[in-house]
Design goal:
With 607 residues, the chain is of the alpha/beta class. Among the domains are: 41 residues; 228 residues, P-loop containing nucleotide triphosphate hydrolases (Rossmann fold); 67 residues. It contains 21 helices and 20 strands. 34% of the residues are buried. GO terms for molecular function: ATP binding. This is ABC-F family ATP-binding cassette domain-containing protein.
Length: 607
Amino acid sequence: MANIINLDRVSKGYGPVGQLLTDVSLGIADDDMIGVVGLNGAGKTTLLRMLTRQEEPDDGRVTHRRDLRVASLPQRLDLGATATIRDIVLGTAWLDEGFGAEHEWAGDTGVRTILDGLGMGYLGLDSAVGPMSGGERRRVALAALLVRSADLLILDEPTNHLDLAGVAWLAGHLKSRRGAVIVVTHDRWFLDEVCNATWEVVDQTVRAYEGGFAAWTLARIERQRVAATTEARRQNLLRKEIAWLRRGPPARTSKPKFRIDAANALIADVPPVRDSVSLRRMATARLGKQVYDLKDVSLRGGDKVLLTDVTWQVGPGERVAILGANGAGKTTLLRLLAGQREPDAGTCKVGATVRAAFLSQELTELPGHLRLLEAVEDVARRVKLGDRDMSASQLAEVFGFTDRRLWTPVSDLSGGERRRLQLLRLLATEPNVLILDEPTNDLDTDTLASLEDLLDSWPGSIIVASHDRYLIERVTDNVFGMLGDGRLTHLPGGVQEYLTRLASGSAAQFGVGESRSTQPGGQADRAAESSGLTPAKVREGRKELSRLERQVSKLTQKQKTLHEQLAQAAADFSQLAVLDAQLKSVSAEIQATEEQWMALAEQLPDQ
């Protein structure tokens, strides 16, 4: 193991943005697999650009091992409109750093393996890049990096526009290749699967941790606990010093100078407030009994058949995930629900009280000619947030945009900040149905946690197409797959069942269509008839089961917290009595909820 890149006291800043990194010293070994995390705008992309020497630091230096080969995937690509896949992947139309000529790779079967693994097996090597979608162009660029032998691979958001199978393939490929990898990604499963170290870009520095996302999360919590204890001691000492200094104006002049200097040092040492995001639920319009009712719907995307004679219902409060490979038609289905297109056949009825908000993958809908505050006011000048009536500037602050960012042009925002602004504008319309197309793209891990917390308590309906396992498993109750057979298939086993079916190549064998079909003789109807319940009652019962499961999970977490508080208050008998009473109450509530769940589960038919 040897160092290939060293950063020695590196600092970097930009005029309108301010200082991003200060006195950062790091080393990269030849077998490191490093995940880079941090808030949007903290300096992650700037750090990568300095590692590749695309930008020079303001202070300090970046040194590379002699003859080091570095390949990088940036956020923004310029592949050339007339280039073909062959030019990009096998030639030097995009990468010209001397990684190898076409003849070295043309006979390599690994090239086709990489293209297939990234979901581009349907494209020929002579396909032009110009007409491709942004996701396809990004996968072409990623393939160009993976077919080359680099000592260090630097990837900025490589999982964007990859489906679940593509993310799993890329993780396996990176683990099996030789050389170091540095990756910025929002995909927490990917970070855990691939990385053996994590860099957190925060407070103008970079903190290094061993392990992937889970290990970093635990280490960060411990660091915050220690910092909170230190800060509590500092604040206590600060209060004593200030009280001593204020003990009468006449006495102040007679205080020993070293005591005054010590107190001033404490006051000056107040750390800056971190730019955090706390997404809170805005006012939501009342939702009636009907949300979406699709009957015999067929959809096409160009010459490709996406759905055929699909009958499907989405009820109030339902949380649905749509899975499928890139090009399966997930976005087309969401656009149908959002009212942006009509079905090619059949009907799509929308409830009279539905007020839907559609978060698309594209950021072009943001008004780039406006400043951030103007873009918020363009949607709503005042918004009801909880029990508070807030102005546009106050709302922007809740979403992590500080005063100095309010007058930043939208076009100058980072990808993550623009995504956060897009979400802000969406929620400001006070919807009761959220239609989310890849909502996790470009968001940092802290914002993702806040988004999941918001969606977890959302009272309306949620329909989301995503390749993020964490998001799907936390905020949705039902998973449906578009497996290429023209049907919308219910997947009771969730993400794992979807991957299993893809691996076995038996979508058609399993594809029974809609497991919750409202057609006469459908699976859900037959199950309902066998139990003596109407299909509507069965759906309501299963929805209640999901609610009870989430309630048990939250109560169990509360129970765990109380146990920890009891351990910490072992010497405080009055506090122990209070906590013990709370613990007994929570335990009783858990037992009652579990009994309610079991009683309801016995009444319902098997899925």
